[in-house]
């Protein structure tokens, strides 16, 4: 990704259009010149990723995205790369029409796409069908073309956004291009990094097209990509009391594993002390497996209240259940007004009995839990994860983490951070319990709710990536993250 102070900023489609218009009107860069710069940047990207490519096929739509494709094909021909172009419909708009004519006047032939045409054998396919404006599913005929492209097995370069992916939300309402590389222009589109989109964009490469920093002055991004960072080294005089006390609450009958994972992650996340409030029948197992956890038999609210004065932060929900025992502990925890991280059944109980949580609270729902919290279905959450996470934070007055590919963190004021790490191997039981413990540990060590949520999500995802690099994604389990988590937290892993 191009080095720039704006390389971590994410924008809505509407904002990108405004930036494009500002480049034309305020910076005096004509629209056609922007198209030429995009094509040149795309050719550089193609040669970087596929230096041996000698034959490409470009699929151009009727708009400016298609114009980018025509000009790329023209530049490729000049560079000695054989380029075949297939057009979907007639070009519309002065710049797109001009780009198509330039390709044709240079000796290129534009083939009209129709069903049944056999695609050529090429080294790379280039998707220039639709840009950021598409908000609906691809029509059946274009979907058929996309499936034919995939069937060839050749890699795909997408210009600006893979066709069929919603660049604003990350939703994919139907068939979409699965790109190996997406080169996106002027500004990073927020939808490329969350939801279903990460499965379609491949490697995202941003090209600002040589536009000066004045383009972005006074222009607030909608969200930002998280950056790798960790806590500073501890002072030499630190002791266990300096690093906070996490009280993990959960583990109803048969679910000791969930609260143990949460507690152990809090230890590996750097908390000075970690207590576990759980059922009596779990004490022997917890003490045997992880003696550093201080496990307590908590049979009801009074027993929990005795533990609260020593706690810095509460981690509520892993294995808690929604029965009378779990509900009573949940109420006691929320009424304590201590900082807390709420997950799993702690969230399901919140959906049943909504209340504002306030400063110091973090909620960590997956899409199903988020749907229950917002009174909708998971499809609604998936259609616009940005809107969902902002509404969660606003409604419950807490920092909200919406888990999934491209996890999002929002605060009640609308600020959003996006996690660019993580992998499919992390879609296994217990990962959420770890995240709860990590965030709680960071709060215990002095982080605010926003800082703890962002750092916790990033450490959790990066630890998953380190674990996957060493052993692969399939078969990855939650405890595989604990060792790389510790190394990342101490700056000994990248």
Into which percentage range does the β-strand content fall? 15-25%
Largest sheet: 12 strands, mixed
Q: Tell me the helix content.
A: 25-40%
Average per-residue pLDDT, rounded, comes to 95
Rg calc = 26 Å
Model description:
The protein has 494 residues and is of the alpha/beta class. The protein folds into 2 domains: 9-222, Rossmann fold (3-Layer(aba) Sandwich); 240-489, 3-Layer(aba) Sandwich (UDP-N-acetylmuramoyl-L-alanine:D-glutamate ligase). It has helices at residues 13-25, 31-49, 64-78, 94-105, 140-152, 198-201, 256-268, 283-289, 301-307, 324-335, 345-352, 367-374, 378-383, 385-396, 431-444, 449-471, 482-489; strands at residues 9-11, 55-60, 82-87, 110-112, 124-128, 156-159, 181-185, 188-189, 203-207, 223-225, 245-249, 273-278, 294-297, 313-316, 340-342, 361-363, 399-402, 408-410, 416-418. It has a 12-stranded mixed beta sheet with strand order 8-1-10-19-18-17-16-15-14-11-12-13, sandwiched between helices. Strands 4-3-2-5-6-7-9 form a 7-stranded parallel beta sheet. The mean pLDDT is 95.
Topology summary:
Elements: E1 9-11, H1 13-25, H2 31-49, E2 55-60, H3 64-78, E3 82-87, H4 94-105, E4 110-112, E5 124-128, H5 140-152, E6 156-159, E7 181-185, E8 188-189, H6 198-201, E9 203-207, E10 223-225, E11 245-249, H7 256-268, E12 273-278, H8 283-289, E13 294-297, H9 301-307, E14 313-316, H10 324-335, E15 340-342, H11 345-352, E16 361-363, H12 367-374, H13 378-383, H14 385-396, E17 399-402, E18 408-410, E19 416-418, H15 431-444, H16 449-471, H17 482-489
Parallel strand pairs: 1-8, 2-3, 2-5, 3-4, 5-6, 6-7, 7-9, 10-19, 11-12, 11-14, 12-13, 14-15, 15-16, 16-17
Antiparallel strand pairs: 1-10, 17-18, 18-19
Helix pairs in contact: 2-3, 3-4, 7-15, 11-12, 15-16, 16-17
Protein name: Bifunctional NAD(P)H-hydrate repair enzyme
EC number: 4.2.1.136, 5.1.99.6
Cofactor: Mg(2+); K(+)
């Amino acid at each position: 990704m191009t080095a720039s102070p704006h390389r971590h900023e994410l924008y809505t489609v509407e904002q990108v259009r405004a930036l494009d218009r500002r480049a034309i009107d305020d910076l005096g860069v004509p629209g056609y010149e922007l198209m030429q710069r995009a094509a040149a940047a795309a050719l550089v990207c193609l040669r970087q990723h596929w230096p041996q490519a000698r034959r490409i096929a470009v699929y151009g739509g009727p708009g400016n995205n298609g114009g980018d494709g025509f000009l790329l094909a023209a530049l490729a021909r000049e560079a000695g790369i054989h380029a075949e172009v297939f057009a979907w419909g007639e070009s519309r708009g002065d710049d797109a029409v001009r780009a198509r004519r330039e390709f044709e006047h240079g000796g290129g032939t534009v083939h009209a796409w129709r069903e049944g045409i056999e695609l050529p054998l090429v080294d790379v396919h280039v998707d220039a069908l639709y840009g950021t404006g598409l908000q609906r599913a691809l029509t059946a005929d274009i979907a058929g073309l996309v499936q034919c492209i995939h069937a060839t097995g050749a890699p795909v370069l997408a210009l600006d956004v893979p066709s069929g992916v919603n660049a604003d939300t990350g939703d994919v309402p139907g068939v979409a291009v699965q790109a190996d590389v997406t080169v996106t222009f002027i500004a990073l589109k927020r939808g490329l990094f969350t939801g279903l989109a990460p499965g379609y964009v491949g490697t995202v490469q941003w090209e600002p097209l040589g536009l000066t920093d004045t383009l972005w002055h006074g222009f607030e991004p909608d969200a930002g990509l998280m950056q790798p960072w960790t806590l500073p080294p501890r002072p030499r005089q630190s002791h266990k009391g300096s690093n906070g006390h996490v009280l993990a609450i959960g583990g109803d009958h048969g679910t000791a594993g969930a609260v143990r994972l949460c507690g152990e992650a809090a230890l590996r996340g750097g908390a000075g002390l970690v207590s576990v409030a759980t059922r009596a029948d779990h004490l022997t197992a917890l003490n045997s497996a992880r003696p550093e956890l201080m496990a307590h038999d908590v049979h009801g609210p009074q027993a929990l209240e005795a533990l609260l004065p020593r706690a810095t932060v509460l981690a509520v929900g892993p294995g808690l259940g929604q029965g009378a025992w779990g509900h009573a502990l949940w109420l006691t925890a929320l009424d304590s007004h201590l900082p807390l991280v709420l997950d799993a059944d702690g969230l399901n109980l919140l959906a049943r009995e909504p209340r504002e949580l306030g400063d110091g609270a973090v909620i960590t729902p997956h899409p199903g839990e988020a749907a229950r919290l917002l009174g909708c279905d998971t499809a609604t959450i998936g259609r616009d994860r940005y809107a969902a996470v902002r509404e969660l934070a606003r409604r419950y007055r807490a920092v909200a983490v919406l888990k999934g590919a491209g996890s999002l963190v929002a605060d009640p004021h609308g600020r959003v951070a996006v996690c660019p790490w993580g992998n499919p191997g992390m879609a296994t039981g217990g990962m959420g319990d770890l995240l709860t413990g990590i965030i709680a540990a960071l709060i215990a060590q002095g982080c605010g709710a926003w800082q703890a949520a962002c750092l916790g999500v990033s450490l959790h995802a990066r630890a998953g990536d380190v674990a996957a690099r060493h052993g692969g994604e399939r078969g990855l389990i939650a405890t595989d993250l604990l060792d790389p988590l510790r190394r990342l937290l101490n700056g000994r892993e990248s």
